[in-house]
Write a structure and sequence with these properties.
Two copies of one chain form a homodimer. Chain A is an alpha/beta fold. Helices cover 40% and strands 20% of the residues of chain A. In chain A, the strands form three sheets. An eight-stranded parallel beta sheet of chain A has the order 8-7-6-5-4-3-10-9.
Chain lengths: 359, 359
Amino acid sequence: MKTDRSKNMSPRRISKQIQIGGVKIGGSAPIVVQSMANTDTRDIMSTIRQIKELQEYDCEIIRVAVPDMQAAQALKKIKKGIKIPLIADIHFDYRLALAALEAGVDGLRLNPGNIEDKDQIKKVVLAAKERAIPIRIGVNAGSLSKTQGKKSVVTRMVDAALEEVKLLESLDFDLIKVSLKAFDVPTTIAAYKTIAEKIPYPLHIGITEAGTPHTGVIRNSVGIGSLLYLGIGDTIRVSLTANPREEVIAGYEILKSLDLRQHGPILVSCPTCGRTEVDIIKIAQQVEVELQKIKKPIKVAVMGCVVNGPGEAKDADVGIACGKGRGILFRNGKKIGIVEEADFVKALMREVREITNPN
Amino acid sequence: MKTDRSKNMSPRRISKQIQIGGVKIGGSAPIVVQSMANTDTRDIMSTIRQIKELQEYDCEIIRVAVPDMQAAQALKKIKKGIKIPLIADIHFDYRLALAALEAGVDGLRLNPGNIEDKDQIKKVVLAAKERAIPIRIGVNAGSLSKTQGKKSVVTRMVDAALEEVKLLESLDFDLIKVSLKAFDVPTTIAAYKTIAEKIPYPLHIGITEAGTPHTGVIRNSVGIGSLLYLGIGDTIRVSLTANPREEVIAGYEILKSLDLRQHGPILVSCPTCGRTEVDIIKIAQQVEVELQKIKKPIKVAVMGCVVNGPGEAKDADVGIACGKGRGILFRNGKKIGIVEEADFVKALMREVREITNPN
């Protein structure tokens, strides 16, 4: 899973680096994929089970809600049952943050709109400082302080974050990460662009309440993708009204699309058109299912005609340009054989397995 | 379906405006959603049937492959059977372009990598000029001319387009649209950013051979979304290995996510977490299904807790913040009632219908 920022991208904003458990965030560290459990945190077994499943999908950091003291006390056992760093999501009651720190979490998320008493925040910050536990200042457009008047949402989000950053800095605390999420994508991008120039800390990026997988994946991809293209963002969380594994899968796909992380196979396949003489949709779907068994990075192309087919198939590690009845198989840019239509998927996957699992 | 570029976006690149049939592209025209039929163009009935279905999804321009003379001759009847402008996709044989013009198409797409003989191109351009039919110079990374040597893909794509632009301009032809598509997103963005500053013509944007809906939607959203955020792009085509209606639906979702077009409802829904006390995933899915019947723009929020719930629900036209057993219903930012859990979807949809269909 190497990092390889393309020369065709805007340069990455270089932030300070912090560490959540063993995971580095910011600086030149790879952009980290995180998610949030949607189980009842008090249900320790279900929460551990879900986090373990997310670990299988390479979720790198997990956050859980801490709505009450029972949830805070569950964190200790949850932490013992999982391998990835655990972040406690705190709203309203600062004592839950203190209890979460006591339970041994690797990070805290505080929403400035929901804990406004500075003395309470100070108590949390001093307890976090003692343990060297980072705090995310997690601003959300849906829960901004009402005292900020008629400024724009972007300004209110940025101001809320800056005020909290100053408070933490005044306590000599700099293990800070910041997020500024809204549902509206241009609002979110503008807020991150503004704060990116004002503070040196790593940024957690995302679009909030983005909806169901159908439309939410698009909204997240446009927002997170645009920010990453601009060089902004050190860790991402895709928000979907769905099982959180969908968030992790989509997160990696966003990073892969910008060549920011490698993570399993990449499937190139043509949209099919009136030139296509075989059922490319079906072939691509079959290959996609087969590729789910492959963990190593490899670029595979399934193409349906002679226009771009051979060109794209050559550019992939393994590719097939499918014509009527027969296809041309490519490996590392070289034609390696002619394949009968019935064997398209089988022949392609044989090459994939040979490359990814040479023994 | 109004256009409303957010003040938080980069300013739009203002291009010359062309017209494909009755549809304006470039200048300050709304960004146009187009797709490509994947039927056999020679099968006139199937092609018309597919395009009519795409019209129902508000596809605004349709392109069809023209692999041979029989396909070119089918265009006349296809054109008669549909309402949206028809573009002929031409590769290799310039005579197919002449036949397509003869058949009355509204636009041509030529791939410079596949027709390299300048005299042949001239014949097509002069015939298009006579009829005032626009030509898209459609460069594709998979079919670049081999004569360009060892320059970068971005440079080769841009140079290929510029060379063809010059040829068309030398014939006093300026009904030009340009595209520069690759599978690699940073490559594609870099190519469009470069050409955007060099020519005054509208740009057709997209990511080519992006794959199946699962991963391809993400790749398209990141690439097209980043370009649109940067102010680049006058018409979009999402490429998916799928039924083209998926391309149209995704196209509108990309534009909606950047507030560039309105198109039916927008569903805000929270990702659910350990705070959620009701099955928000199920409720959001039910609302999503109900909203498919609504054609007018409306923003609907389904939220699962008190952290951001009321804030986001208030910001929507209609919203519900769902708690255990009971939810708070909002309309135009005002609380309008308390709803029992069994009635969440029904109550929300009653308000939606009242707003979108007041009689």
